[in-house]
Design goal:
Blueprint: H1 2-12, H2 15-44, H3 49-74, H4 81-97, H5 104-131, H6 138-166, H7 171-177, H8 179-191, H9 206-211, H10 215-228, H11 235-249, H12 251-280, H13 285-305, H14 310-338, H15 344-373, H16 375-394
């Protein structure tokens, strides 16, 4: 029995799965440290808040375009891994370069370059991960990668906080230090991840490549888009916590507690990712994904219906971590299951782009609703789209085994 259990683990927890997980952890540690430093660094440059929005918007837009192009292009290569390694190197260099900026537009250029590299590598990393395991292990492989990635997202802000104090706000050195985990991420992708042999896809046009994706996958993308149009950035939960706690606790204590709640959120997210992946290999993925979307609706409704104090906010942040862990793990593993391995690059690129469009829509709409009509309307809008997305996932036909 013990030998059988070990063999079962070995089938999915292989060198490539571990290598991709380590790569995600190190890279997220690098750029999450930099992201935490960015707002205060821009303040030292005399930049208005609008600059931060412009930098994030341009960077995310470039990243979305790069994901689509990279996914399409890499299906036509016999070896995908060099593209991923190059993407990690560009991200590491662009992230570190922000510390040498003397004006906000320098930060914009460096951040955009970093996120361009991030967009290039994302569908390639996911295709390499899916190609390293059998279809029966997609859930665990993607759950492990999401867990490792989120561990980096927890450690990164903590590193930024301590390094700020230790190095007395010397930003050039602080950003330069992000090169260490950033380049280590490129190294683990290059030397630990093993790329499985594959036959390159014959050249076809981009449009023909998209049309060749299965009808079930297009149904899935539509559900992802509807859900994504309500799926706000979870940094808004930090703002919500600060607004609700500040009147009774003061701004400083509210800010500290909001940050602590976000650490709780990310810890739950990491644990849920692995659990959701394990369950996904034992159950039909569409039901779990629909449950994840519905859990998001419960979180949004809690914001609308409950009195928001520290205890209920802790619940909101925790449930937010649960649905995010389910959503991201199951979207990736369901995507891998719905299409043939030869189409994984373009499928993951398309999924990432659709998610980017949804994020863009939700950020604008939720922000406008929050500002003009209040949090109840904003989160009620999210709950409605979350439920719609869950119902659309349930309508997707059960897939046959991918090749």
């Amino acid at each position: 029995m013990k030998a059988r259990s070990h063999a079962h683990r070995a089938r999915w927890l292989n060198r490539t799965v571990v290598g991709v997980g380590l790569t995600s952890l190190l890279s997220d540690l690098s750029h999450e440290t930099a992201t935490t430093l960015l707002p205060t660094f821009l303040g030292t440059l005399g930049a208005a808040a609008a600059w931060l929005g412009l930098i994030e918007g341009v960077s995310d837009g470039l990243s979305s375009v790069a994901k689509m192009a990279s996914g399409y292009y890499t299906d036509r290569l016999r070896r995908r891994k060099p593209i991923a390694v190059a993407g990690y190197i560009v991200t590491a260099l662009g992230t570190a370069a922000m510390g040498f900026a003397s004006s906000p537009w320098h930060v914009l250029v460096a951040r955009a370059a970093a996120w361009l590299g991030r967009g290039v590598r994302t569908p390639v990393r996911k295709a390499l991960l899916a190609g390293s395991v059998t279809q029966e292990a997609y859930g665990r492989a993607f759950g492990f990668e999401r867990m490792m990635d989120t561990a980096g997202a927890i450690v990164g802000p903590l590193c930024a906080f301590f390094l700020l104090q230790l190095l007395n706000h010397r930003y050039a050195l602080l950003f330069a230090l992000t090169l260490i985990p950033g380049l280590l991420a490129a190294g683990t992708m290059a030397f630990v991840v093993k790329e499985e042999a594959r036959v390159a896809v014959a050249h076809v046009s981009f449009g023909a490549s998209l049309r060749a994706l299965p009808a079930r996958f297009r149904q899935f993308l539509l559900a992802v888009l509807v859900f994504g149009a309500g799926d706000f950035a979870h940094s808004l939960l930090i703002l919500l916590a600060m607004q609700k706690l500040a009147p009774s606790l003061g701004i400083a204590k509210a800010a500290s507690l909001a940050a602590a709640l976000y650490v709780l959120h990310n810890a739950v997210y990491a644990g849920t990712s692995m659990l959701a992946g394990s369950l996904a290999d034992r159950m039909e993925k569409k039901y779990l994904l629909a449950a994840g979307y519905a859990t998001g609706a419960l979180m949004a409704l809690a914001v609308v219906l409950l009195p928001l104090n520290l205890a209920t906010l802790a619940g909101v942040f925790a449930v937010g971590g649960v649905y995010l862990g389910m959503e991201e793990t199951l979207e990736d593993s369901f995507c891998a299951e719905l299409v043939a391995r030869a189409q994984h690059g373009v499928a993951f690129g398309t999924l990432a782009t659709v998610n980017g469009v949804g994020d863009f829509v939700s950020s604008i709409v939720l922000g406008l609703l929050w500002t003009s009509l209040g949090t109840a309307t904003a989160f009620g809008y999210s709950a409605l789209l979350f439920v719609a997305g869950a119902l659309m996932v349930l309508l997707i036909a059960t897939p046959r085994k991918a090749d």
